[in-house]
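Researcher: Please generate the 3D structure of the following complex. Treat every line as part of one assembly.
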Amino acid sequence: MITIALPKGALLKDTIELFSNLGLDFSAFLDKSNRQLQISDPTNTARALLVRAQDVPVYVEYGQAQLGVVGYDVLREKKPDVANLVDLKFGYCRLSVAVPKSSPYKRSVELPPHGRVASKFVNCAKDHFDSIDLPVEIVPLSGSVELGPITGMSEAIVDLVSTGKTLKENGLIETDILYESSARLIAHPLSYRLNRDNINELVAKLKSINY
Amino acid sequence: MITIALPKGALLKDTIELFSNLGLDFSAFLDKSNRQLQISDPTNTARALLVRAQDVPVYVEYGQAQLGVVGYDVLREKKPDVANLVDLKFGYCRLSVAVPKSSPYKRSVELPPHGRVASKFVNCAKDHFDSIDLPVEIVPLSGSVELGPITGMSEAIVDLVSTGKTLKENGLIETDILYESSARLIAHPLSYRLNRDNINELVAKLKSINY
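Model: Done. Output below.
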């Protein structure tokens, strides 16, 4: 039986809807009282694992799941060894640099050398500042990155922006967009190549829905 | 004004009670409708930041907060450059190795060489297996670590255990305790040494409450 890793959080609802179009019903995961992390669809065609978004590529990389759904941002940050097969065209957001509205710096190239940038995306942030040849210190935070500039710990942040509401509420403005992100279908490379459990058919169906 | 970094989550309630014993009221953070991440106590004596537990040492290390409260487990895992001043004697838990009940391995030394161990505490897990000279592959997960053995991805896990309920619900048993953890008062080393904002007095009061 094919196993699919589904991401908890913002992408879950659209992901479950996507698979319901293929006749795979994992809606039990949307029930707030659900405590199970592993279910089969009622037709016993596929199994789903409910894991944190950033753990989806881990389960796929180790072959515990043949397919997974995860944001492009996670793939860019973690660079897992998985096949990025289909842009699922939901979960749109962007990874951006932002500074306080009152900041004298209007673009990331203007930031002072050896300044500080707070981010959950330490690798993506480092790649960006390396690409513009600006040495900065990345302060690794795991949440509420907007507190970095508010407390004076950092000049800027690198964070995901979807509506821009959080930035606005915290007096921050975007200066640069590093990349756009959306949900992606990923696969265990070997399972995909060997067409284990006929996953190619499932992937083809998902592609046809999305194009 | 002194700034104190408080951890979101399991330790928050006890932490706020602790500071209320010193006349510092940060109970606004317990209000579910609160969206602020930074407040002053009503007497304007101290400021508090509400951050993720693992970010507490970051704010203290960078001097954005002079004091912080965090679990010993975070200090062991991240090894931040902060002073570990007082055992606050709440938030007790332990970092343990656990295996499925049906596992043939009853202690971590019996695990097969080059087996897999899933954990959020990759450094602590590595330190443990290094100390018993057993080469294992640590699979880094960010949540629901118990899924590692359930899906067959790993032979064992290294995770925090408090009541043991999660292990039991997932058919896992503890084999080794790596260390016991509890909440700690940490300080920015330089602020503490220079007694900035008279923090030594506050630390002495917290110690007197706890001994």
